[in-house]
Amino acid sequence: MSVIVDGSNGLVFNDASTQTTAATGFGYKNRIMNGAMVIAQRGTTPTSTNLWYPADRFRLAVSNSSKVNLSQSTTAPTGFVNSILATSLAATTVGSTDAYEVSQQIEGYNIADLAWGTASAATVTLSFWVRSSLTGTFGGVLENNGNTRAYPFSYTINSANTWEQKTITVAGDTSGTWLTNNSRGIIIRWSLGCGSTYLNTANAWVAGDYYSVTGETKLVATSGATWHLTGVQLERGSTATAFDYRDYGRELKMCQRYYYQQTYDESNEPICTSAYWSTSTVVEMVTNYPVPMRAAPTYGGTTSAVYALEAQVAWRQFSSLSANEIGPNRAKLSGNAATNSNWNKGQGAVVGLRSAGNIFFNAEL
Fold first, then answer.
1. What gap in Å lies between CA 355 and CA 270, rounded to an integer?
2. pLDDT for residue 21 is more than 90
3. How far apart are CA 75 and CA 134, in angstroms?
4. Which has the closest alpha carbon to 37: 85, 5, 2?
5. Which residue in 227, 350, 365, 239 sits closest to 294, CA to CA?
6. What string of DSSP letters covers 96-161?
7. How crowded is residue 195: how many other Cβ atoms within 10 Å of its Cβ?
8. CA atoms within 13 A on the CB side of 64
9. Per 3-state DSSP, what percentage of the chain is helix, strand, and coil (rounded to 5)?
10. CA-wise closest residue to 142 among 181, 112, 173
11. Is-contact 209 11, C-beta < 8 A?
């Protein structure tokens, strides 16, 4: 294996597919995925449901639904084309144990070099672009998987409806347990309004489960208030550098490690071509994911949108679809379809989406 050192930019290339930055020891300086909010596999419709992802890897968590919407937006600062938009739907009173927040959960493998929880813990810098109809002090947190160590941070929005870039430098935590496997390594949250149970002083590591800072501005307390986020970057070191743009295809594949969805697009795109009729009403198939997923995913989708082709003659609609075997690389699915009148045991089939709907595989942290 050859090693090439490019002193002009500090990059060390071990082979054609692997690179590490000499200053950081990590292939991509930005530990955040989809920080420019360009990937939105689940769609762009504003949604207030708990655990909704308006853009891949960014999650809305709410104590009560129908209080705040989150969606992908085309409002963005110069150099970006998308953001995520939170819109308060009511003047909500935030109870002491309520929480409304946006987060990204970073896989442990991708932060292992930071050595958090040891005396060698590395400093990191979080930077992002934000815009809100409200001004004042807002907050967020960096937290571990066990919710036992937290670093609440604050940032100030000075001008309403104006894009502002914020930078927070965090000395790495020398205490606590920080996972370095395929579980949650670091959770980063941006608060839209949290109760007193989840608030603490800014800019210090504390033991416990906290989401924001005391005295925060609560977006959900003002009906119609808006908040945008984009250009999110978490990097090793004490200085915020230029945003790490990655090509769309690479960013999509990185997101598909956690969530993969096929959606009807009126082109009859096959879900699976290596399928067969095991009986006159049952189709067995194996679906390979575009990339290996973080762990064995859960399966879901719109069963009524799925059809199997019978003997190149007619499409038969599925009434049910289940996963017989499911792993991080592929899933074996079994579907019940309308009767195949030309059935022969082992007869090949093509399975596809032929009406509005989707199928998805979810391995989110």
1. 12
2. no
3. 16
4. 85
5. 365
6. TT-EEEEEEEEEGGGTGGG-TTSTTPPPEEEEEEEEESS-EEEEEEEE-TTS-EEEEEEEEE-STT
7. 18
8. 16
9. 5, 45, 50
10. 173
11. no
Buried residues in 97-127 as b, exposed as e (16+ CB within 10 A): ebbbbbbbbbbbebbbebbbbeeebbebbbb
Q: What is the pLDDT of residue 268?
A: 63
DSSP state of 296: P
pLDDT digits (tens, 9 = 90+) for 205-226: 999 999 999 999 999 999 999 9
> What is the distance between the alpha carbons of residues 169 and 212, in angstroms, rounded to a whole number?
16
Q: What is the pLDDT of residue 26?
A: 44
Contact 248, 135 (CB under 8 A): no
DSSP string, 178-243: ---SSSEEEEEEEEEEE-GGGEE-SSS-EES---EETT---GGGSTT-EEEEEEEEEEESSS--S-
Phi, psi at 32, each rounded to 5°: -80, 140
DSSP conformation letters of 341-359? TT--TT-EEEEEE-SS-EE
What is the model's pLDDT at position 19? 36
Catalogue all structural domains in the chain, each as residue range(s) with its CATH number: 1-29 (no CATH), 31-255 (2.60.120.260), 259-362 (2.60.40)
Higher-confidence residue of 200 and 341: namely 200
CB atoms under 10 Å from CB of 19, counted, come to: 15
Mean of the per-residue pLDDT values for the chain? 91
The pTM of the full predicted model, rounded to 2 decimals, is 0.91
Which of 12, 4, 37 is closest to 243 using CA atoms? 37
pLDDT-based confidence at 12, cuts 50/70/90? Answer: very low
Could you give the angle at the alpha carbon of 71 between the alpha carbons of 47 and 52, nearest 5°?
50
Are 321 and 306 a contacting pair, CB within 8 Å? yes
Neighbours of 169 (CB within 10 A): 15
* Angle formed at CA 240 by CA 257 and CA 294, multiple of 5 degrees: 10
Determine contact, residues 106/198, Cβ cutoff 8 Å.
no
* Span 254-268, average pLDDT: 89
The residues that bridge with 139 in the sheet, in sequence order, are 154
